Amino acid sequence: MSGVVSRFTIAPLDVVKIRLQLQSHTDKSAIRGALRTFATIIRREGIVALWKGNIPASFLYPLYGSVQFATYRRLTQFLKTLPTPPGQHAINFVAGGFAGAAATTTTYPLDLLRTRLAAASSISSSSVSRSSPALFEALRTLHAEHRQHPLRPYFRGLPAALAGIFPYMGLFFFGYEGLRAPLNALLSPQHGAPGWISILGAPDALAGTIAGVASKTAVFPFDTVRKRMQVQGQSTTGTTYPLHTGGVLRTLSEVIARDGVRGLYRGLGIGLIKAAPASAVTVWAYERCLAVMQRMGGS
């Protein structure tokens, strides 16, 4: 239930971030800035539009987290049993990267559907039918594409997602595991910190926040490329997004040529506003659940 509530709360941030990422610098109708994008969406489409894509996202995030942490836990245990195990930092990076890749691949169709719904404007008669919900319209469109190219439409942009998620989650767990112990020691009662800080798990949350912000910033261009590839050719508000058929690196170069390097980081600010608390809550919950399982005799 808490996951549903938190997802409902941050959904508007997702919609605004996606809209910003998909805008081109050369588009004269582009909306500049997160707050202005918020206001424009509400004025043109109504406040409900800020929750577009929330239905598939509500399934995406719990499933993603389950696959990610289960894979991470198993991989760290496996890597430690190798005849010549790598160092702990290398284990954290590799296990984190593969865990992110597994979770991304498993949930990718939901992510693509969420992005298309968030990108579509209800004032465009070509993108959302008045007689049927947007979700079913998006599913019909994907099914039609699937009939021409089996399975491919559901995983469009996946290479860009994997190119970004492996270093993102690798850096995240590398940073988190590296910061967690020092922060727990620094914020312990032995160093004069109030006891409730350690009891509530604040050091874990802080480590997750720092790791999440740093890793998100490092790989954000790949997230932008993924979004561009997911909606390419889709018409919204009279705009047809450019087609990108040459793979991740070519799409990256096309975005730079069209919008400059800044185009790769459009929406980063609001993305970090979302990533910081999300990372903190995620690792805090993971550590608390892991502690309970260990006390109950689980591994």
TrEMBL record:
Chain coiled-coil ranges: none
Subcellular location: Mitochondrion membrane
Pfam families: Mito_carr
Record key words, sorted: Membrane, Mitochondrion, Repeat, Transmembrane, Transmembrane helix, Transport
Membrane topology: Multi-pass membrane protein
Solcar repeats: 1-78, 87-182, 199-292
Gene3D superfamilies linked: Mitochondrial carrier domain
Main location: mitochondrion
SUPFAM superfamilies named in the record: Mitochondrial carrier (SSF103506)
GO BP terms in the entry: transmembrane transport
GO cellular component, one term: mitochondrial membrane
Membrane-spanning ranges: 157-176
Signal peptide limits: none
Family to which this protein belongs: Belongs to the mitochondrial carrier (TC 2.A.29) family.
Protein name: Mitochondrial carrier
Annotated source species: Favolaschia claudopus
